[in-house]
Specification:
Layout: E1 2-5, E2 24-29, E3 39-44, H1 50-65, E4 69-72, H2 78-88, E5 92-96, H3 110-119, E6 121-124, H4 136-147, E7 150-154, H5 161-171, E8 175-178, H6 189-196, E9 200-201, H7 205-212, H8 228-236, H9 244-251, H10 255-267, E10 271-273, E11 279-281
Helix pairs in contact: 1-2, 1-10, 4-5, 8-10
Length: 282
């Protein structure tokens, strides 16, 4: 664990754009994680639904494959799942605490925190075992916003802390992407509200590719280097569109592994993703 203040080498310059930047930042893990770009903030409901989980399984592996750092708050639900999927995809993630640097909150995420700091970083503006409180968790959202180049909101009601993070992003003049949902779903009320007030609707990886300048379809024959999971799915796919659920059943692979492999195969132009959410060989 180490501490960097506003005069220290390595203090993120983006934090200085805040009206009240942290006087110091306590860090566990790799200092280089704070320097990697682009960085994508992902926040959302603590009561994540299957829809939210599927959304993360689509976008997080894609972002990691493009070299992005994932920033979130280590809370239950969307935050924790974003961290986990990043680690499973061999990416770098930053967790911003609303409690002291030595006091992982929630305590149930101690093990996840230790995994994060092996390759990424855990950061807090609070020293030691400072307990989280009514004001510390909203305050940490400004750090998530400052460390992120863009923000993705995945589920949340109208009073969700995710909307506080979105407010900070707006103050910083940064882009917000929100995942739209059913108008009768309470957990889609937050993202739908943000979209109605100017946030970008996040529909597919194309939306992120366009904003971040990613090449969704790299040139050349890249199928000489594919994983066992990608090879297995290629063997199952035909020119007839197939659903992710069917591929999970046929391959006996978990959904997040299938989604990650399909994203990679799509980037390699080996398969196509239809407008109805199905996949087939090209």
């Amino acid at each position: 664990m180490f501490c960097i203040n506003q005069q220290s080498h390595g203090y993120p310059a983006s934090l200085l754009e805040l009206t009240d930047p942290p006087h110091a930042l306590y860090v566990r893990g790799s200092p280089h994680a704070l320097e990697k770009k682009p960085s994508i903030g992902i926040v959302g409901s603590r009561h994540m639904t299957d829809y939210g989980k599927r959304t993360l399984e689509t976008f997080v592996p894609f972002l990691v494959a493009q070299g992005c750092v994932i920033v979130s708050g280590l809370a239950f639900g969307v935050d924790a799942q974003a961290h986990k999927l990043t680690l499973e995809s061999h990416g770098t993630t930053i967790a911003v605490l609303g409690s002291g640097i030595e006091c992982i909150t929630p305590r149930a995420h101690d093990s996840l925190g230790r995994d994060i700091e092996k390759t990424g970083a855990i950061v807090s503006e609070y020293p030691g075992v400072t307990p989280g409180g009514k004001y510390t968790f909203p305050a940490r959202n400004r750090i998530i916003a400052a460390l992120s180049d863009i923000l993705i909101i995945v589920e949340g009601n109208r009073t969700s802390g995710s909307l506080i993070t979105a407010d900070f992003m707006q103050q910083l003049g940064k882009d917000i992407f929100a995942v739209p949902g059913n108008i009768d779903s309470p957990l889609s009320a937050g993202p739908n509200f943000l979209i109605a007030h100017g946030a970008h609707p996040l529909i597919s990886v194309d939306d992120l590719s366009a904003r971040l300048g990613f090449d969704k379809h790299p040139r050349g024959n890249v199928l000489s280097d594919i994983s066992a999971e990608e090879r297995a799915l290629l063997g199952l796919l035909t020119h007839a569109p197939t659903s992710v659920d069917d591929l999970c059943t046929q391959s006996a692979l978990p959904a997040h592994v299938v989604n990650a492999a399909l994203t990679t195969l799509e980037l390699k132009r080996a398969i196509r993703h239809t407008s109805t959410g199905l996949f087939s060989k090209i």
